[in-house]
């Protein structure tokens, strides 16, 4: 608009016209002010502001119905009142509920206008009779439980693989929970029917996923975004490990004594030192090679069997008070040292 | 004054029966004296342990108590019993002491050294292997071995050990019956001839520190042959033996290379000594958690501490556990501490101390200190 004004000015028209143009675009307030100017009147100083004081409204009585909760029959069908999950509503719940934090000694606020009660999820739609009724309704779609699977053992033998996954139910904008993708597979190692070699190889492949005490192999997958994918992946892992452990590779023949999964006394230094010791006690010259030591018959050495057992158990079962004591007893017998006296 | 003396005397007399034994010769110790203290003669103590052999805290305690009293405990009696019935024609038997920290392995060893000394053994005692391999003072003397390629010598430590050996076996060395069987040529002008007394060899190592490690190597070989010939019987005691088998030592070569224990000449020497390819001797070793760094102290059992290599080296050995105090030993020790005024206060403190120290000898001693 200002551009137009400038234009008019440059033409040099009389200022009256210019003013009129201004008027055309002025606000209504200006018009009102002009009106006031015309009917001039003194303002009255109203000190007590009597004129502004609003007259007190007379409370109008309206007939409020009593709360719905108070009108409910005690033997009503609750499932109809609260059929599905929803936020708490005080008038629909005929219970004297209180919820909220208060200083000590006071009662928590009641159910009406109580935000605390509305915040928390409720299970008012899942009362036992309702669940029962719903189960009854679903029953027509179920099949009968197989009679052979009457015990835990039976289930374990027929279905050795156990799949564990979690579903999450919560009140948030999305019903997806990323944790529900995780799938765990559990299987007893004994049900795989592996032989000595493949069992050892399988254990090396699964590493710390095997629990010796329970004999369970636990494989967990969470790398795929969806549960189904993880489930398939877990299946694949078990299958791959199983078949790989059945294979015997060429390089497995290079296994040395350090790679052994158990302690074989006959192939170890312990037997060698025992044989050397025995030959020395008999003043014989020992010029045996390694194979001779492995082949050497220990039955001619007195008390060697107990010693062999003690060393093997010390190595295989780990060191403990018991195994070390057994070792001490076996060695004392072998070397002809008197036994330890037990002091009471 | 007189009454005070009388009181002390009577107190000692009244308690002497309960925790002390007058039998100061370990050969005579038997099961009846379990838990009793016997006092070491000052002179023997000086000759046997003046260069180490007692733990530091015990050494301090002997100073405080003005006497060296060792408790006769079951492991030592067991060992004495074993040694007495050993067939000395068979290869040497190796005994390994093991047990928790502070349970008295070193003191059991000291007791056994006293026994060996009394019994006329030639003693080869290494007070603490970690002193060589793990303790690095500012000026640790190290040099490359002249005779063994790629090996490291610890000449000062070796010489110190030779002095220790000399003081421990003064009587036997002075007798001069032990002769060198081979000729050793150290340099152009120095050599030890066949038939020279063993003390000359030792003396050479002490005066010519450069050759100390080689002297020890020669000495060990000589002693092995002497024992085989039954000219002497030998008692080997090595405390903290498992330190030889920890993969690394704290030593560095001048080129900042970490030294492995098997690269130290002393290690090879003592591993050679602890093999069972000789007779007429006793080998007593100890596997101690304190001899290795913190990361390998999870268990006190011998296989764990000795590692695979050490176990295979020693196998078959006789493991001997040195445990905590039994009821009887604890009471005897408590009354000994009361006698020495190390422990005072009402008698109920002992019950409490037994729980707080879990009957561990070292902890018990420590906890009594402020009482």
TrEMBL record, chain A:
Residues in Small ribosomal subunit protein mS35 mitochondrial conserved domain copies: 176-247
Family matches, as InterPro entries: Ribosomal_mS35_mit (IPR019349), Ribosomal_mS35_mt (IPR039848)
Name of the protein described by the UniProt record: Small ribosomal subunit protein mS35 mitochondrial conserved domain-containing protein
Protein's organism: Chilo suppressalis (Asiatic rice borer moth)
From TrEMBL, chain B:
InterPro entries xref list: Ribosomal_mS29, Ribosomal_mS29_met
Compartment(s) of residence: Mitochondrion
The entry's keywords: Mitochondrion, Ribonucleoprotein, Ribosomal protein, Transit peptide
Pfam families: DAP3
Family the UniProt entry places it in: Belongs to the mitochondrion-specific ribosomal protein mS29 family.
PANTHER family per the UniProt record, alphabetical: MITOCHONDRIAL 28S RIBOSOMAL PROTEIN S29 (PTHR12810), SMALL RIBOSOMAL SUBUNIT PROTEIN MS29 (PTHR12810:SF0)
Protein name: Small ribosomal subunit protein mS29
Species: Chilo suppressalis (Asiatic rice borer moth)
Taxon lineage: Eukaryota, Metazoa, Ecdysozoa, Arthropoda, Hexapoda
